[in-house]
Design goal:
The complex is a heterodimer.
Chain A (H helix, E strand, L loop, with lengths): L1 E10 L2 E11 L4 E5 L6 H9 L4 E10 L2 E2 L5 H6 L2 E4 L6 E5 H15 L7 H15 L9 E2 L5 H15 L3 E5 L7 H14 L5 E5 L3 H7 L3 E6 L2 E6 L1 H10 L2 H7 L1
Parallel strand pairs in A: 3-10, 3-11, 6-9, 9-10
Antiparallel strand pairs in A: 1-2, 1-4, 4-5, 7-8, 11-12
Chain B lengths: L1 E5 L4 E8 L2 E9 L4 E8 L3 E9 L4 E8 L4 E10 L5 E10 L4 E10 L5 E10 L4 E10 L6 E11 L5 E10 L4 E11 L2 H9 L4 H17 L5 H15 L16
Parallel strand pairs in B: 1-3, 2-4, 3-5, 4-6, 5-7, 6-8, 7-9, 8-10, 9-11, 10-12, 11-13, 12-14
Classes of the chains: A alpha/beta, B alpha/beta.
Chain lengths: ~250, ~250
């Protein structure tokens, strides 16, 4: 599904990613761990095409297409979704109008007619219940006045509505209490199919328990320095990063 | 000069489409009357407006400026009777070479009056927006409350905005606030929307519309509000935004 080759990227002229190689197949969940500043968020922003990040070398193919040649909106239409670490507040644009615009843009890209209003509202209601998001959030500005936990629920709710094939969860677990994390993780799991994949960035064992990833990778100084299965995640939880980062140097 | 009077305890809601040329208007609100005035300035003009509010009367004005020329509005509101209230809302959507100048003065002459100004301008291309607002509180006008908010959004590097909120206070028991901001579209919000699949032009349009939304929300009547929102959207889409091409049939 996704293949990253020798990816180098910079932010404001400063090199952050220094040769990332990663292959994620259909239906797989990969967890990315690593010390602060190792480039985890940079990698996710590069994948979704944030113009602040400059790719200086390497390639990314997504279902055979050159991802780097596509603008962010087309990457979304191709099935890419990112749950933001810090979701942006957009006062004055209601969640309902926001998602209507997003969903209908995707349908247009796929050559489909806009979803009839009633069907759209039914879809919102159904997905809202999936992540336990109250109806009052629908007519408020996007993320406006949401608590940290509500914002993260909101991200998974949007994901449920837009049905991406590849999701990036950038520290979706941070700022969530135990119950909220369970709801969000269960919501995510219920959306999984044999065709949908995910890259999950996390620092916590709880997230590993819920996600049951197929692979765990460690990013350090802009490169993946270790890959393994779920056990690698638990080892890091126990011993920290130093033993891996130390060995790779 | 054209003079209009709202009789004592009268209530009136009017939608007005302002024509080009020059106007000189005097409005008088008699005690405890109420006027909701929703104006669309689709043609540039030179306008001078004097409003007098008597005791307990209320004026709510929303002005939408959408012309393509050079306009100037001078407005002086006098809160003459105790407890009079005025709410002035304005939205300017500028494109091309448009120049819109708005010079507003609200004078608190009596006790316990309230005034509010909320003016927003979205300026693209080489358009210019000049906002000047002055709240003058006379010596005897104790317990006056006033709030002035001016916000400008520049969507092109060549557009220019100027906003000058001013306070002149001669009483000592008053609550007066004022503020002005000038900014550009929020890059983070824009990217967030694009990540969800909303194409950039559509995302810009939603953000610009959101920026002026709170001015439009001052229109209590839903029909007129939808009409104004439609005119604003047409303007953002670069279409002609005149009442004659609008599908909402407001009674002018």
């Amino acid at each position: 599904m996704l293949e990253i080759k020798n990816l180098h990227a910079a932010v404001e002229g400063k090199a952050i990613l220094r040769g990332v190689n990663l292959r994620i197949g259909d239906g797989e969940v990969h967890v990315l761990m690593g010390p602060n500043g190792s480039g985890k968020s940079t990698l996710s922003h590069v994948l979704v095409g944030n113009p602040r990040y400059e790719v200086t070398e390497g390639s990314i193919t997504f279902n055979g297409k050159d991802l780097l040649a596509l603008p962010p909106e087309d990457r979304a239409h191709e099935g890419l979704f990112m749950s933001f670490q810090t979701p942006v507040e957009i006062p004055g644009v209601s969640m309902t109008n926001f998602l209507r615009a997003a969903l209908n843009a995707k349908r247009k890209y796929q050559g489909l007619e806009p979803l009839p209003a009633q069907e759209f509202l039914r879809l919102l209601r159904e997905k809202r219940q999936l992540v336990g998001l109250d109806a009052r959030f629908m007519n408020r500005g996007v993320n406006e006045g949401f608590s940290g936990g509500e914002k993260k629920r909101g991200e998974i709710f949007q994901m449920a509505v837009l049905e991406p094939t590849f999701s990036i969860l950038d520290e979706t677990d941070s700022g969530l209490d135990v119950d909220a994390l369970r709801t969000v993780a269960e919501g995510f799991q219920s959306l999984r199919t044999a065709k949908t994949s995910a890259l999950v960035i996390t620092h916590y064992q709880r997230m590993l328990d819920y996600m049951r990833p197929d692979f765990v990778h460690v990013l350090s100084e802009g490169r993946i320095v270790r890959s393994g299965d779920l056990q690698l995640g638990y080892d890091i939880e126990e011993k920290g990063f130093e033993w891996i980062v130390g060995q790779s140097e | 000069m054209d003079r209009y009077e709202i009789p004592s305890h009268g209530q009136l809601t009017r939608f007005v489409q302002l024509q080009g040329g020059s106007d000189d208007i005097a409005l008088s609100l008699q005690p405890y009357s109420q006027l909701n005035l929703y104006c669309v300035e689709a043609e540039a003009g030179q306008r001078q407006v004097q409003v007098d509010l008597a005791e307990g009367s209320r004026l709510c004005l929303v002005l939408l400026t959408l012309h393509e020329g050079r306009s100037r509005l001078r407005m002086h509101v006098s809160l003459r009777g105790c407890g009079a209230e005025v709410s002035l809302g304005g939205a300017v959507v500028g494109c091309g070479e448009m120049v819109a100048e708005q010079d507003l003065t609200v004078e608190h002459c009596a006790e316990g009056c309230r005034s509010e100004m909320l003016f927003k301008q979205v300026l693209g291309d080489r358009s210019r927006g000049y906002l000047s607002g002055r709240v003058l509180v006379d010596e005897g006008a104790q317990q006056s409350e006033s709030e002035q908010t001016f916000a400008s959004l520049l969507t092109s590097g060549e557009a220019r905005a100027q906003a000058l909120p001013q306070l002149e206070i001669y009483a000592d028991d008053v609550k007066c606030n004022h503020g002005a901001t000038v900014g550009k579209l929020d890059d983070d919000a824009l990217f967030y929307m694009r990540q969800r699949g909303i194409p950039e032009p559509e995302a810009c349009l939603l953000l610009q519309h959101a920026f002026v939304e709170d001015v439009l929300l001052r229109i209590q009547d839903e029909g007129h509000r939808a009409h104004f929102a439609a005119l604003v959207e047409q303007r953002f889409r670069g279409q002609q935004s005149r009442c004659s091409v609008c599908q909402h049939s407001c009674k002018a």
